[in-house]
Amino acid sequence: MQTGLLHTHTLLVTLFFIHYVVKLVLLLTNSTEKLAAYSKKTKIAEMVISVGFLVTGVVLALNATILGNLFVVKLVMVFASIPLAVIGFKKSNKALALVSVLLIAGAYGIAEVNKKQKAGGKIETEQAASSIEAGKLVYMEKCQVCHGSDGKLGGSGAKDLTATQLTDQQMVELINNGKNSMPGFKEVLSDEQVNGVIEYVRALK
Ligand code: HEC
Predict the structure, then answer these.
(1) What would the DSSP string read from start to end of 158-183?
(2) Which CATH class is domain 131-203?
(3) Distance from the CA of 161 to the center of ligand 1, in angstroms?
């Protein structure tokens, strides 16, 4: 459900951003009438989209385990952009409108960067001699925070890995896609790294 929500949120934010870029272009090119017509036509859609992205954002934030400093910057940018956008477009103040759209763009950029960093970024395990050794490196870097060095820590509601009943295939799925408060690692771990870390998890028993 979490990833579905995240996709919805990203989609709504993207629509919101495109919408404001269109408005900004109309404003900057002095197409006052077109802007008025466009704003009128999209009024309800804009309301639905902005409420949707704020609500999905709040739900995601409440469910997240770790909110980095970047998240705070993003939040400040989003909330600063709203009054600026309202005033900027209402008063046809180009500078304010531009700043508000830049803030939205900045927050959007941060969200993307944050996503990449969330699971900690890619790690290099090529130098490891065997897959289980590579798996150990991955484990210490990515999994230990929640699961502990012995697999039993249970941080953020994590499960005891020494007692797992999952098959390898189920583990691959879970590690790639995440589940509840466990993040997915598809973007940061290669297939070999996932297999290696599973081997290492099996060895914890
Ligand atoms: C942010 C904390 C967190 C991190 C980091 C994390 N996990 Fe988890 N893990 C969890 C939580 C929470 C669950 C329980 C998910 C559920 O079933 O609701 C879980 C469940 C699991 C399970 C399933 C256990 C079972 O029997 O159902 C495996 C296997 C697992 N994690 C492996 C890993 C591996 C491997 C890594 C590193 C690549 C990792 N986890 C990183 C929190 C985390």
Answers:
(1) ---GGG----HHHHHHHHHH-BTTBP
(2) mainly alpha
(3) 8
